[in-house]
Amino acid sequence: MEGTPMVNPSPHSPPATSPSPTTIFLLSISGPSSAGKTTLAHLLRHVFAPYVSLILHGDDCCKDISLIPTVNGYVDADGINGVDFPKMARVLDHIKSNAGAFPDGFAEGQLDVYPDQEENALKLVPSEKLGHLKRKVEGQLTSRSKNFRTVVIEGFMLYNVSQITQKLDHRLFVRLDSREAKRRRMTRPLYGAQAKPGEF
Questions:
Q1: Which pTM does this prediction carry?
Q2: Distance (Å, whole) CA 58 – CA 198
Q3: Is 99 left (phi over 0), alpha (psi -120 to 50) or beta?
Q4: Residues near 167 by beta carbon (within 8 Å), at least 6 away in sequence
Q5: Is the distance from CB of 190 to CB of 67 less than 8 angstroms?
Q6: Which positions ≥6 away from 195 have C-beta within 8 Å?
Q7: Over the stretch 133-155, which tens digit does the pLDDT of each residue have?
Q8: Taking a C-beta distance cutoff of 8 angstroms, is the pair 95, 22 a contact?
Q9: With CB atoms counted within 10 Å of each terminal CB, which end of the chain scores lower, N or C?
Q10: For residue 7, is pLDDT > 70?
Q11: Residue 139 CB burial class (10 angstroms; 0-12, 13-18, ≥19)
């Protein structure tokens, strides 16, 4: 039969390769309220972009206020019972097994309340310093990094719940003395304005 002959592949030919799966690294930042966890998360995403794919804010897993117990007459939103940790665990499992993507319909309420968080965080560090850090990161990354993504999880009491801790690949803890924590908390928009004497 005339035409282009069909050639059988050599048994020694390398098999066709499929794209390498994306490896997800879960980096957590925890510490007291107003310690700068969210600010640090946004700075890390900026410096390590595009290798930090997203940020999971602990506040996006808070329970409905009607489900949070009260302490001394105040809703204990800053206590361990103020966060829906089983929900957070499910979100982390989805992120890990779906190339660093949030579940469909997951609400990022933190962005609605504080839409300028990232912009404000970047103002705290000179642009020249941020540029230097980005170039340093880019110079140290290799071709293997293209299939590697980091997801940052920030929130309080992350390390008090084994259901969460066991899922994390690396943990950071931000320290802050109680006097400065209270000062920052009481001067924050929404939080401080709505707080009552003795609440925090």
A1: 0.78
A2: 24
A3: left
A4: 26, 89, 92, 93, 96
A5: no
A6: 185, 186
A7: 989 888 887 666 677 889 999 99
A8: no
A9: N
A10: no
A11: exposed
